[in-house]
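Researcher: Next sequence.
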Amino acid sequence: MRLEPLHTDDLVLAELGARLARTRLERNMDQRKLATEAGVSKRTVERLEAGEPVKMSSFIRVLRALGLLDHLDQLVPEPLPSPIERLKTSGRQRKRASGRRGGKPESRRTESWTWSNAPKGDEEA
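Model: Next structure:
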């Protein structure tokens, strides 16, 4: 059965439980073995397969034991930044070091530097 937005929570839990039970059986595992590999009680596996609510951590452990944990990426994909956020941050990331713009490099300057604010030629010797 395909899960639809209008399905009740109980119906969704029952369908997920049935899918987990079928996956367990396809892997030729009994509930006790799955519970042991997942680190949960056999009763937790029974409740999960019956569509009863269980702790999220128990659900994750069972998915891991069945080799299905990577499917959570499809269930809740990592959100991508919005185009506006990408524009805001793209200007802040440096791609390379900045050099001096215009003028001569420091080593090629011909004028001498002094501490006074007086115009050139008025320096005290």
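Model: Residues 9-75 form a domain with the 434 Repressor (Amino-terminal Domain) fold (CATH 1.10.260.40). The two ends are 95 Å apart (CA to CA).
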